């Protein structure tokens, strides 16, 4: 074990806290996240015109999101091994270039097949980029500022969540859906240039062996902490998307608001989420596991509270605003957990995290759909609350496993 730890810490570059902060690189990564999230979910607001132009059903266009998720999982599980000793700056620049190519391919696609190729490419970027995010933050800033860097990364996510759907819909009505997608290309190019000039070289030392397989993490000394933590993370995102995927039909059929009000409520959720990413860093500094416990606890309460209050627009807006505040900030906490729980395996741990999150989102969305059709919104939201409550228990178990690991093997920390 000691031999592996030394090798992997060498392969990841200088130890955290022994290098200067590169905040320009952090901001460039945040812009890349904005373009990435906007690219991933742009089809949501443009399904109808895309389906008409490509001469397929809206459901088939929606599969463009599913295929990007599939390729994100495959890439996240393999990028660390396939990249080997490649300079991580070069790898990030390559992924950003692929994002620009993806936008152009989708915008110029003459038919459905090439459209799906473009969506598969964005999936590769999603898996590769998020797999490396924690490890990159650890190399851009000292250890005590990693949570802040991750919060800035996720700020691009929150901003895209706020702007992507309404802006995509607006641009689609003005310049068409192809023009809307093509607008993402210069943003990706700008992110590429900014990364090129602001990211430091992130070489992997030649003497270091290839990075460990993701699945090998579970046989390491910290496997209990990693396994319970990943289970907690997966249940959190599953519970979140059991509910959130079906917020719009809930608002339309239960709260009974019009389309404009739905957009306004979604905007409230996005703005609250942006605020959450700005605030969570200070709570993570006070206690990582405590924050990871509090967030799903409160969200489970919100999910349950929406059942009896669904007919009140005022109560729904307040509750969903709090939901956005917590749910959008939560990934910052989980990426901080990766950096803390697997400091010498951050790339492999990040890949595993992406696979767990993407799979959990897919399962949660599917389960939510089945429940919404069969049990209505009340059954759906109560199941979401139960899954989030399970996440609380799993976080508690993971924190205790981590404590036992620290007590038995302090030299590995």
List the main descriptive attributes of the protein structure presented here.
413 residues; 81% helix; disordered N terminus
Low-confidence stretches: 1-17, 207-211
Radius of gyration: 21 Å
Average per-residue pLDDT, rounded, comes to 81
Ends apart, CA distance between termini: 13 Å
| Protein structure class | mainly alpha
Instruction: Estimate the strand proportion.
Output: under 5%
Give me the count of strands: 0
Short recap of the structure:
With 413 residues, this protein is mostly helical.
Any overview of this molecule?
The protein has 413 residues and is an all-alpha fold. It has 15 helices and no strands. The two termini are 13 Å apart.
Secondary structure: elements and pairs:
Elements: H1 2-11, H2 23-41, H3 47-54, H4 58-76, H5 79-83, H6 88-108, H7 112-140, H8 146-182, H9 184-198, H10 223-244, H11 247-255, H12 259-286, H13 288-309, H14 313-341, H15 346-408
């Amino acid at each position: 074990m000691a031999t592996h730890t030394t090798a992997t810490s060498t392969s990841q570059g200088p130890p955290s806290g022994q290098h200067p902060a590169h905040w320009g690189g952090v901001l460039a990564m945040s812009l890349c996240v904005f373009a990435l999230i906007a690219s991933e979910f742009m089809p949501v607001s443009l399904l109808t015109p895309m389906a008409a132009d490509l001469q397929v059903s809206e459901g088939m266009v929606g599969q463009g999101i599913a295929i990007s998720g599939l390729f994100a999982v495959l890439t996240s599980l393999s990028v660390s091994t396939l990249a080997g000793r490649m300079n991580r700056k070069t790898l990030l620049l390559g992924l950003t270039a692929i994002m620009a190519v993806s936008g152009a391919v989708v915008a110029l696609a003459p038919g459905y097949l090439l459209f799906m190729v473009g969506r598969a490419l964005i999936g590769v970027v999603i898996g590769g980029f998020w797999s490396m995010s924690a490890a990159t933050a650890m190399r851009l800033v000292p250890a005590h500022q990693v949570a802040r860097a991750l919060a800035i990364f996720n700020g691009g996510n929150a901003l895209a969540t706020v702007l992507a759907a309404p802006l995509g819909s607006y641009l689609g009505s003005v310049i068409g859906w192809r023009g809307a997608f093509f607008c993402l290309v210069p943003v990706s190019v700008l992110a590429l240039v900014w990364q090129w000039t602001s990211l430091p070289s992130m070489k992997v030392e030649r003497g270091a062996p290839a990075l460990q397989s993701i699945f090998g993490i579970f046989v390491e000394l910290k496997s209990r902490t990693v396994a319970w933590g990943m289970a907690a993370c997966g249940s959190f995102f599953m519970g979140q998307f059991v509910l959130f995927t079906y917020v719009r039909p809930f608002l339309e059929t239960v709260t009974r608001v019009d389309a404009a009000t739905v957009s306004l409520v979604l905007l409230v959720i996005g703005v609250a989420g942006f605020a959450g990413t700005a605030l969570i860093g200070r709570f993570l500094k006070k206690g990582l596991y405590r924050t990871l416990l509090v967030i799903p606890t409160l969200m489970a309460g919100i999910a349950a509270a929406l059942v009896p209050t669904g007919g009140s627009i005022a109560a729904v807006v307040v509750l969903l605003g709090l939901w956005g505040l917590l749910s959008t900030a939560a990934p910052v906490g989980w990426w901080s957990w990766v950096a803390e729980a697997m400091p010498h395996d951050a790339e492999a741990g990040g890949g595993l995290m992406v696979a767990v999150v993407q799979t959990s989102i897919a399962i949660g969305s599917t389960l939510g759909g089945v429940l919404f059709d069969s049990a209505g919104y009340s059954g759906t939201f109560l199941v979401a609350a139960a899954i989030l409550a399970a996440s609380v228990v799993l976080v508690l178990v993971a924190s205790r496993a981590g404590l036992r690991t620290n007590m038995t093997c302090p030299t590995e920390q």
